[in-house]
Design brief:
Elements lengths: L5 E5 L2 E5 L8 H5 L14 E3 L5 H4 L2 H6 L6 E4 H31 L11 H10 E4 L5 E4 L2 E7 L7 E9 L2 E7 L22 E5 L10 H18 L3 E4 L5 H11 L10 E4 L2 H11 L7 H10 L8 E3 L3 H6 L7 E5 L9 H8 L6 E4 L8 H6 L4 E4 L2 E4 L3 E4 L9 H8 L7 E6 L2 H14 L4 E3 L9
Parallel strand pairs: 2-3, 3-4, 4-5, 9-10, 10-19, 11-14, 11-15, 12-13, 12-14, 15-18, 19-20
Antiparallel strand pairs: 1-2, 6-7, 7-8, 8-9, 16-17
Helix pairs in contact: 4-5, 4-8
Bound molecules: zinc ion (ZN).
The site of zinc ion has 4 residues, from loops.
Length: 451
């Protein structure tokens, strides 16, 4: 997956829209080490759509190579970036250390981590928080405004007005567009006017399962696990998914008889991110606002335990039943969920609820695919627990959501599909042309779009 990164040139000034990390296989990740196709020192500023690493994760590299301009983003994004980028630096430093031990044995030269915490700290000082729906002139002839994209807390679509030699153009950058009717967050905002739209198409070829069905399924799994006297494990991304699950547990607390359970949020990063989520109540949708007012807190979970330390986490292993454990990583590739899986997979009274996408080659994917045995910490573990996959909780809109968002434009702009895997973009291009009569094209890496 390519990290989102677009350069805009106007009136002799240059700025970036997003500066994302390239993620995926090791050879893809290595591409992050290649120099930028521009001089970071020559940039005047950066506009950041949201905190996810595939949009923000190369900002520390930009700063490491001399960029010192402002980075404009939504207020909540500035807070979430601190959590995400510090974690990314920590993981990078840890990973480099591990690789270096191996390289030392082979007498090969050592590698440097992509960036360190000190680079992240410099980025955090450059972040300039903004509110939604407030115009700001960021450069002579360039004005921006953030609109809610409904994807994660603080996520935006960016309106950009450009003025050069009496010519005026408006570009809208979609950022990542969320699902309509997702918990906590508002729906993606309607934008009516643009000359050109740069748009993501991550799930341009997919349709999510119905959300109500998903909620009902989770309720049924909880009651079955209660009947079986087991535990429930939920691998979840620290930002977004963990908060949605807490919110749903709070919303259905009585209906799902959760007084009989202990809920553990077993992830320091998710605990930090949750604090930020609950600190921005003015960004909630109507239902979340009502819920917060009714209970005076978010979420209303009397039996929620926040486990910060490794010892907190290990002590959960003593519980044979009645525990709902939310932990990362989302695809079970590392983090605390792995030791919970080791302790719980062997017993048939336990349940694992898979709520997010599981990439090929991950432990989470092997569970979804029905493996009888999996390897954890080099040990074979038998899978006797129930593995329940529920769809419908994605932070990304499906093709219908994306189509709905882009058909709000009354000005019939040209649409460039910029962020998404090949098949998804190609399929979505077709859908936009045929079903929505929109002039859409897939942009390639390195493309120049002249306005
Ligand atoms: Zn995102």
């Amino acid at each position: 997956m390519t990290g989102s990164c677009h350069i805009v040139r106007v009136g002799g000034k240059r700025f970036l829209l997003d500066c994302g990390l390239i993620q995926g296989r090791r050879e893809d990740i290595e591409r992050n080490r290649q120099p930028f196709p521009f001089d970071p020192k020559s940039l005047d500023c950066v506009v950041l759509s949201h905190a996810h690493l595939d949009h923000s994760g190369r900002l520390p590299l930009l700063v490491k190579q001399g960029f010192r301009g402002p980075i404009y983003c939504q207020n909540a994004t500035a807070d979430l970036c601190e959590v995400l980028l510090e974690d990314a630096a920590r993981l990078g430093e840890y990973d480099a250390k591990r690789q270096n031990r191996r390289l030392a044995k082979k007498k090969k030269p050592q590698i440097e981590p992509l960036y360190r915490d000190k680079d992240v700290q410099k980025v955090l000082k450059l972040l300039v928080g903004n509110r939604y729906r407030t115009k700001r002139e960021i450069l002579p002839g360039v004005t921006i405004q953030f609109r809610d994209a409904g994807h994660i807390m603080g996520s935006t679509s960016v309106e950009v007005w450009l003025e050069e030699d009496d010519k005026k153009r408006k570009v809208v950058f979609s950022g990542d567009v969320g699902q309509y009717d997702s918990p906590i967050l508002n729906d993606p905002e309607v934008i009516k006017q643009a000359d050109v739209v740069l748009m993501e198409s991550t799930y341009g070829n997919r349709l999510h399962r119905d959300r109500e069905e998903t909620v009902q399924e989770i309720g049924e799994i909880i009651s079955e696990a209660r009947h079986n006297k087991g535990n429930i494990l939920i691998p979840a991304f620290a930002i977004g998914r963990s908060q949605e699950i807490l919110y749903m547990l709070g919303k259905h607390y009585d209906e799902w008889d959760l007084d009989r359970w202990h809920v553990f949020l077993d992830s320091p990063m998710a605990i930090e991110a949750s604090k930020i989520y609950w600190e921005y109540p003015h960004l909630y949708d109507e239902e979340a606002t009502r819920m917060r007012r009714a209970f005076n807190e978010m979420p209303k979970l009397r039996n929620l335990h926040l486990s910060r330390t490794a010892d907190d986490s290990k002590s959960i292993n003593k519980l044979r039943s009645g525990a709902i454990i939310i932990a990362g990583s989302g695809m079970c590739t590392g983090g605390r969920i792995v030791h919970h899986l080791r302790h719980n997979l062997g017993r048939r009274e336990n349940h694992v609820i898979i709520v997010g996408y599981q990439a090929v080659g991950t432990l989470g994917r092997r569970l979804v695919d029905g493996a009888d045995m999996v390897k954890i910490y080099g040990e074979e573990v038998r899978v006797n627990a129930h593995i329940d996959t529920v769809g419908g909780l994605s932070a990304h809109g499906d093709w219908k959501d994306l189509g709905r968002w882009v058909s709000n434009f009354e000005s019939k702009p040209d649409v460039w599909l910029v962020h998404g895997e090949k098949e998804a973009s190609a399929a979505f291009e077709k859908t936009l042309r045929k079903q929505y009569r929109i002039n859409a094209r897939v942009a390639q890496v390195g493309n120049t779009i002249s306005l």
